């Protein structure tokens, strides 16, 4: 390929065959050696990585750097553009809670947020935590936020300085700015204060990176003396700990991708044994929020596929006492709910678009907050206090910068608090956002959100970046994205494929893209590419596909299924060795993932289904497009060896001469670089790759 003519020889991983036989089927993996035997310890101390593996990964980085050398100027230009669209000294509108209002801010040039508070009605800011100061001298640093105690005297904060998502909890005196001696290691990052402000609850990750235990920590005592509150025996479940708005309960939330279970600790008796709400039942999900003397329960019980809201007495929360409050409406998916003294609020999606609905708890009267654009994104921010009529929400579209509103649920008045500033300027009228529908193989209509400049020719000549995810029920919002303007301003059509596996068209849209129906996710994405070409938005040799994590699996699958329909593929931290991972129950996420993909250990049927699409297992001799894969060395979600093995096999098998590039961040995990501008450098790199393939290096 002319764009990559002067490349040095690509790294060739040696073959060290390992065989595995399941259900009478034998597979051979030539590159299994790229998985470090000491991966669990390495996540906490990356310096102990096997030297042979490190040398190979560093050779991959050198190769991709040579391949992208001619884009270095473009990367700098893209970075400058994207940085220029960010208000560097931006700050949030503080949220009122008790005598104070709490907010976050950035300083010019700063990578990490600063947490502050002011008196409730305004006044001088008090700095509580400076993320940039805490990150000094660390190649990677992720600040997990800070939670203030009920007396507003202490702050519980979390950080990860390896990228492996093992968080350390510290306690800060908010008056002096000094940390107490308390240090809690290997947590999931979720700690919650007890109302006494003398203790807190937290989850601990086991050696396989699973949050398996909840502990109660009393200030001043060593972590080794903390009381075990709850231990989850089933490795297939995630666990979180949180608190109710009224501080009446500590919630222990246990779930996988299709089943929920809640346990409650009354804060009136912190030593009480956790109380079960409703025992887990496969396929039944529920989520609690407190509403005074009742719990409001968002659930799919009783066949409510798109969920409904029920209520139950706080004093007797068992399933036998649940009764409908907001009935199930097929096609209207309820995503989240919140309760306040006089109102019940929920976020729903209907016809692919989000909406906020509000019910007066006394009169039962309902209303919705209306919006006009064809495609938009909506987030419900709620309020920190229970006794309020005022909540917040944010709104944006592909052309409209984010707007934060305050909304009075009683008077129905909305007040604009803040509009996202674009310092370098932004003219919404220069762009077009549209929603089109691509016909899928089985007749379904797949939504595609588009953004492009009004002066872009729609005659098939425009390059296109087609983004997709399609897993876990996650819907990709059609919101404002300052980064993608660097593509559209250079003539790209930016497209988001709302494929099955997400919940963009309701819960059934999710079900039709998981387990045995997973292939629909891949064929939907290809159908979106076909439709964009048929309608003149782009051409096959102009499409660059992009997806990350489970969306990276999508990239690997479509590369195998329809390589001729893409000029290039960006696979960020791609989950591409699906079968091997789902067969290894020691990996951090494997048991909790079985409800999403199927369990190939127990089921030969699911073994064959996953083997039929797993990208790594289906790499074969064919002319692949140019591929860029990225990874993080300490990523516990998609381990680095998955893309490393995939790249090695692609390079061995591809017949068309297109290069395969692999960039691995040796100082980060799943989310890549942690700082806000460091992350922009990674996006600039990916976009420079897309622009290079489109012949737009200038």
UniProtKB/TrEMBL annotation:
Residues 15-419 form the Peptidase S9A N-terminal domain. Residues 1-22 are annotated as: Disordered. The keyword Hydrolase applies. Keywords: Hydrolase, Protease, Serine protease. This is S9 family peptidase. Residues 485-695 form the Peptidase S9 prolyl oligopeptidase catalytic domain. Belongs to the peptidase S9A family. InterPro entries: AB_hydrolase_fold, Pept_S9A_N, Peptidase_S9_cat, Peptidase_S9A, Serine_Peptidase_S9A. It comes from Xaviernesmea rhizosphaerae.
